[in-house]
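Handoff note, outgoing to incoming analyst
You'll be picking up this chain. Sequence as last confirmed:
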Amino acid sequence: MTFLIDGYNLMHAVGLVRRGLPAGGLERARNRFLDWLADAADGRAVTLRVVFDAQGTLASTPAASAESDHRGVRVRFASRQTADDEIEELLATEPLPARVTVVSNDTQVREAARRRGAAVHTCEEFVDWAIEDRRTGDSRRRAPPVADKPATDATADEMAAWLAAFSTPPRKRRKR
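Most recent structure output, in case you need it:
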């Protein structure tokens, strides 16, 4: 299984990114984050790919480049576009998107993944998976839980029926 992770989105969700970090703080936080991911993947049959923004938004962001490796975690810095756009491009070129799980709380990223046929997990679901064996003492390494409600594409007729059923009824005109 491959996890395609929205880097700063997950870092923010776990509390590693905040405004006003001291000089070099973001780079240190990013390295701690990547170390945590590498530890979480250790012994599991997973590939972790992390995409970070590099669009001049953060002074300590390395120059954009092809993927690099951090203790087995594949790292990419998006350039000339956002990390969200980069993730969408990676999904568009993925030959087997059903084998990819996108990790993000960003609605646009999650919807793009669903449209492409990839699995989607929130940052919180991924964190639960990453720390599961530590909390429970379970030595078996499992994939993250499957979403309660599988994403399915509704047909045009189904969408029309749902919209008719749940839309606000039209206002009645007053008689004059």
